[in-house]
Amino acid sequence: MSNARVPRDDAPNRIVVQGASGSGKSTFARELSRVLDVPYLELDSLYHQEHWTALDVDTFRELVDVFSQQPRWVSDGNYSSVRDFLWSRADVIVFIDLPRRRVIARLLRRTIRRGISHEELWNGNRESLRHLFSLDPELNVVLWSWRTHGRYRQSVPDEARSRAPHAEVTMLRSSAAVASYLQRLRGT
């Protein structure tokens, strides 16, 4: 994806990106923030503190509240504990809804790559190849995505339409749709 910053005049100011783990939401959201030249918040990077310790909910909510009060931003993540702030302030809520087989294949490749390279994710945290063999979805991101994928197909988008009727709810169901959305914002 390009780093070009040529946003359209009618581009949205506040965008929430959601989708199953491995759907490409963080990559897409980062690119949106570059194209629109707006601040970006990856909720996972805030929530997962050192040693995968969860940030306490009150502090998490406070930090997301402050971030989402800005006039322009992009955020990605699926945390229901902060949807009230994000959805109520969003102009657009984008759901990346790729087929489960594609998401799981991407997630397996990404997890193996990260495990082998010891790539740091956030706050010193790294994915472990050992967790790919765990039956605990809290440890095994592939199992987590498999189990939660269906929720992002219908119930979460319907909830967004209900709780944020002012926001445009957009479903992107293919890699081509994701690329097209970015091209439209670039004006190309």
CATH topology of the domain at 14-99 and 149-186: Rossmann fold
Strand order, sheet with most strands: 2-5-1-6-7
| Low-confidence parts | 1-6
CATH class of the domain at 14-99 and 149-186, named Alpha Beta
- Tally of helical runs: 8
Structural class given helices, strands, pairing? alpha/beta
- Most strands sheet: 5 strands, parallel
Secondary-structure element string: EHEHEEHEHEHHHEH
**Distance between termini?**
13 Å
Could you say what the CATH architecture of the domain at 14-99 and 149-186 is? Answer: 3-Layer(aba) Sandwich
Percent of residues in beta strands? 5-15%
The CATH homologous superfamily of the domain at 14-99 and 149-186 is named P-loop containing nucleotide triphosphate hydrolases
> What does the average pLDDT come to?
91
Assembly type: single chain
Rg over alpha carbons: 16 Å
Number of strands: 7
Helical content class: 40-55%
Overall geometry: globular
